[in-house]
């Protein structure tokens, strides 16, 4: 029991440290670029967007990832607004990718391996609907693809529990503050990054090694 309490306290401190450090970055918001010619976009939410941004960026064919807020009702929310859990938004990422190099299906599968899609409103120590798992689709074809990929991952029994990710139509993503963009690489000394985010990125690398950019692939 004592060990369990200590672990809970440690995780709480990691969250507090991560949030406090993030809030020192200023309030300027990132821009949300239009897709380039031949480029497509996909939007996902899977817990803290620091690790999800990095994990999906490491895939071949992914050109850019913008961290933001989606799935809620408040317009142009701030990080503090979303953390207050009154906006309905989830921490999300918008992925700009080349469909000639990576398919939407492969990107979706990577998303399911980049976080734990079997927990409702929770990712490890992060609790609340702002950390829920969501796959936003833009077309009926993307919806069918997501449903197919979910069935595929469930069939592999990669997770001991079934996927509970919400599959909902995309409406809008509001870009997060500039200091959240690329936060993972810029703050490797942050205890939250090293203890919570890094294991998620390594988990994705292991599951999707062949689809990673060469610099991130594990060489036997």
Automatic annotation (TrEMBL):
| Name of this protein | Peptide methionine sulfoxide reductase MsrA
Sorted alphabetically, the keyword list is: Oxidoreductase, Signal
- Signal peptide range in chain numbering: 1-22
Enumerate the GO terms in the molecular function aspect.
Answer: L-methionine:thioredoxin-disulfide S-oxidoreductase activity; peptide-methionine (S)-S-oxide reductase activity
Species, as recorded:
Mucilaginibacter gossypii
Q: Which residues form the active site?
A: 48
State the EC number(s).
1.8.4.11
Q: Which InterPro entries match?
A: Met_Sox_Rdtase_MsrA_dom, Met_Sox_Rdtase_MsrA_sf
**What is the enzyme's main class?**
oxidoreductase
> Which catalytic reaction applies to this protein?
[thioredoxin]-disulfide + L-methionine + H2O = L-methionine (S)-S-oxide + [thioredoxin]-dithiol; L-methionyl-[protein] + [thioredoxin]-disulfide + H2O = L-methionyl-(S)-S-oxide-[protein] + [thioredoxin]-dithiol
Q: Does the keyword Signal apply?
A: yes
The family line of this record is: Belongs to the MsrA Met sulfoxide reductase family.
State the gene name recorded for this protein: msrA
Residue ranges of the Peptide methionine sulphoxide reductase MsrA domain? 42-192
Q: What's the stated role of this polypeptide?
A: Has an important function as a repair enzyme for proteins that have been inactivated by oxidation. Catalyzes the reversible oxidation-reduction of methionine sulfoxide in proteins to methionine.
């Amino acid at each position: 029991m004592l060990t369990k309490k200590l672990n809970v306290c440690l995780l709480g401190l990691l969250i507090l440290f991560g949030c406090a450090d993030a809030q020192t970055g200023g309030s300027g918001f990132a821009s949300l670029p239009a897709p380039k010619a031949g480029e497509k976009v996909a939007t996902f939410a899977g817990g803290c967007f620091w690790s999800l941004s990095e994990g999906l960026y490491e895939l071949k064919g992914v050109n850019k990832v913008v961290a933001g807020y989606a799935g809620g009702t408040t317009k142009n929310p701030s990080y503090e607004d979303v953390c207050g859990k009154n906006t309905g938004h989830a921490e999300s990422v918008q992925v700009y990718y080349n469909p000639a190099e990576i398919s939407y299906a492969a990107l979706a599968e990577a998303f399911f391996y980049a976080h734990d899609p079997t927990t409702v409103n929770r990712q490890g120590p992060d609790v609340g609907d702002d950390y829920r798992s969501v796959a936003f689709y833009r077309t009926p074809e993307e919806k069918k693809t997501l449903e197919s990929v979910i069935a595929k991952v469930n069939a592999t029994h990669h997770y001991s529990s079934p996927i509970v990710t919400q599959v909902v139509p995309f409406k809008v993503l509001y870009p997060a503050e500039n200091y959240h963009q690329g936060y993972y690489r810029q703050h490797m000394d942050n205890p939250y990054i090293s203890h919570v985010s890094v294991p998620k990125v390594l988990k994705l690398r292991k599951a999707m090694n062949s689809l990673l950019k060469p610099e991130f692939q594990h060489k036997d």
